[in-house]
Amino acid sequence: MAQKKKAVSPPGGRQAAYSARNRARLISDAQEVLAEIGPSATIEQIAAHAEVSPTTIYKYFENKDDLFILALGEMWLNWLQWASLEVAPGTRLEMTLDTGRKLFWARKTHPLFANMLHNSLVEMPSFLPLSDRGEGKKVFSGLAASGELKQDDFDQRYTLWTSIYFGLLRSVFVYEELSPADANVAYGIGLSVWGISEAKATKLVSRPLVFAPVK
User: Fold this and answer.
1) Predicted model pTM
2) What is the dihedral of CA 23, 29, 30, 35, to 10 degrees?
């Protein structure tokens, strides 16, 4: 009777899986610390929350900021995936702008993420563009290349647009000067940066937003 061959794990397979689990857990813990304390939290505070030693954190991440930027970036990605689950039919431009508008309602849909945004905007606003890893600029560059947005002076327009958008996020999540609905109106006004007329901008920000269920 032929002997059954034993399954052979790839070299480092178990160790790699173990490391991946530890890394993922530390990122999750860092997200909670970023929401509760903010970027000013020390490596010792993160370690205490994760119930590990600071040495363990340095084993997986270069420094505290590296961990926090990655933690915020992964939360951004998770939120974007959720935001794209339920969308009203429309053009690529319409759906892209709808995603940006949905973020104003994050306190209701994703309170942990909203707290992360609040603390990052207060203590370390540079975390937000860094955590984006340039993906937002790629999306808007594609829209400009297709003629859906003004393409001339693109870099200057994008810089101005991000300043407007992050300013709106501060008004909603930090200063609470604007309600989500007010921020939505201001968002439409800001679209003039892209050569979008007032009438078209009003139509764009009047589209119904469809929110997927939140687990």
Assistant:
1) 0.88
2) 160
